[in-house]
Design a protein that fits this description.
Length: 203
């Protein structure tokens, strides 16, 4: 198994097609891909990486080889909250191939994503929402639940909040920079305006 990461525009076509197919299976009718303004970075777990591939770099002599066992996308934007500006990242389109579920592949990839965010200079914190029953999965990978916190996605004119009727979401987070860690209580039990836009309405 190997974890590879690419800027979205640089994913080898064979791997991009596999990731898109996994998204279609998980969310039928959805449009694959993400808003380029959110600097999407795709992470893939391959169970048969191409010869010479270097884990985490997306380089190798056969970059299109291998079978995608799990995939996710990291999205990035600045947010304004509690009087400060933070560089935020979030997980989106986390999916595991149907015949590879139950083997820990998704957890391994999510943990690798958290490590990549912590190691790469840039984001102050990660923020994203998930279905309530999936919270333990993300906690096992190193994220923590923010009790009472609401993420507000979409746009200010057409918002989509995690506490909207019919939604059963919780907000997960990881604080990376000293700026974010300086006041962790600022993120708990509050409404955070994510506003990623109309394509990726809510992470």
């Amino acid at each position: 198994m190997s974890v590879l990461a690419y800027d979205a525009a640089d994913v080898p076509p064979a791997l991009a097609a596999q990731a898109a197919a996994l998204e279609e299976q998980a969310w039928p009718g959805s449009t694959p891909g993400h808003d380029p303004a959110l600097a999407p970075r795709v992470m893939l777990l391959l169970d048969e990486p191409g010869a010479g591939a270097e884990a985490g770099t997306g380089t190798g002599t056969e970059p299109g080889a291998g079978t995608v066992a799990a995939a996710l996308t990291l999205l990035h934007k600045e947010i304004r909250h509690a009087g400060r500006t933070y560089r935020a990242a979030g997980l989106s389109a986390v999916v595991t191939r149907a015949d590879a579920r139950g083997r820990g592949h998704g957890g391994r990839l999510v943990a690798a994503a958290r490590a990549a965010l912590a190691d790469r200079p840039g984001p102050d914190l990660a923020l994203f929402s998930c279905d309530r029953e999936l919270a333990p999965f993300y906690e096992a990978a190193g994220f923590r639940r923010l009790p009472g916190t609401v993420l507000v996605g979409g746009t200010p004119e057409d918002p989509l909040a995690t506490d909207a009727p019919g939604m059963d979401k919780v907000v997960m987070a990881a604080l990376f920079s000293e700026t974010a860690k300086a006041d962790p209580a600022a993120f708990a039990g509050t409404r955070i305006g994510l506003y990623p836009g109309t394509i990726d309405r809510l992470w």
